[in-house]
């Protein structure tokens, strides 16, 4: 699998996150920092997550995307637009109820590549920060759909006991 990478662009309230390769917990600090930056914006008009080049997303990445989706719906009244053709990722999004907070499109958007798309600075997180981000991400997955609790309750308990 290709190593994970996150590219971003923003312009006057429009935000784009492009996930490519194998996006895992090693990128959670970077992704979380960028999400928090979006939360600090007063005028968010649109958030697009391009997963067209993503091979795999781990549960921590999914939890952080749930955080973004729940926040955008509650605070800005918008659903995130997600573009994805990967059947495995689409199945996961559906099983975990992401269709409740995302508008998911399997068709490739008819737009030009965003000219300001760039790598975001890698965030180096210490182990305690990573543990807290993983814990928050998995709690959000359960909040999104209580059916997810079977999969993540033991992990949450283990992370909470390590605190």
Automatic annotation (TrEMBL):
It comes from the Bacteria. InterPro entries: STAS_dom, STAS_dom_sf. Residues 4-115 form the STAS domain. Pfam families: STAS. This is Anti-anti-sigma factor. It comes from SAR92 bacterium BACL26 MAG-121220-bin70.
């Amino acid at each position: 699998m290709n190593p994970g990478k996150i590219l971003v662009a923003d312009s006057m309230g429009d935000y784009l996150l492009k996930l490519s390769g194998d996006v895992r917990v090693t990128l959670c600090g970077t992704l979380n920092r960028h999400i928090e930056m979006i939360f600090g914006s007063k005028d968010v008009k649109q958030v697009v997550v391009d997963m067209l080049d993503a091979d795999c997303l781990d549960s921590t990445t999914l939890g952080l995307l749930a955080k973004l989706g729940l926040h955008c719906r509650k605070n800005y009244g918008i659903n995130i637009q997600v573009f994805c053709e990967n059947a495995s990722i689409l199945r996961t999004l559906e099983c975990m109820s992401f269709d409740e907070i995302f508008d998911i499109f399997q068709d490739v958007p008819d737009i030009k590549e965003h000219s300001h798309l760039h790598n975001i600075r890698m965030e180096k997180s210490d182990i305690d920060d990573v543990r807290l981000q993983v814990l928050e991400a998995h709690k959000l997955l359960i909040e999104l759909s209580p059916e997810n609790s079977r999969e993540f309750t033991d992990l949450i308990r283990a992370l909470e006991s390590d605190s």
